[in-house]
Predict the structure of Biopolymer transporter ExbD.
Amino acid sequence: MSRKKHSSVEEEAQVDMTPMLDIVFIMLIFFIVTTSFIKPSGLDYKKPEASTATQQKSANIFIGVSKTGVIKMENRQVDIERVTANVERMLAESPEASVLIEADQEAEHGLVVKVMDNVKKAGIDKISVSAGKD
């Protein structure tokens, strides 16, 4: 009986990292897909206080109205006449959309009503106005 001699160079044990990397990337994709992203209106505003304020489901379309009368949608300044066209465009992208109007407490009431009216003209009935809780 002859025995094989051990080779002078021993093979090093190697760990295959591919399965671990696959799992890490799958988890990363899962967290990216399940994360809800907040769309800021692009305005700094002070919410009016309301004792009956309730938490609403997240809205798809955000409209900001500042105390100086600036209207912002998608971080762009928009004229009051263009609100309807912008909402119609966003409604085409997501037909079940709802609107959240984030108006400063010192914003003109008439301007906020005009924004709400233009949103209604675009065909959206689900309109919420942002308020803080007392």
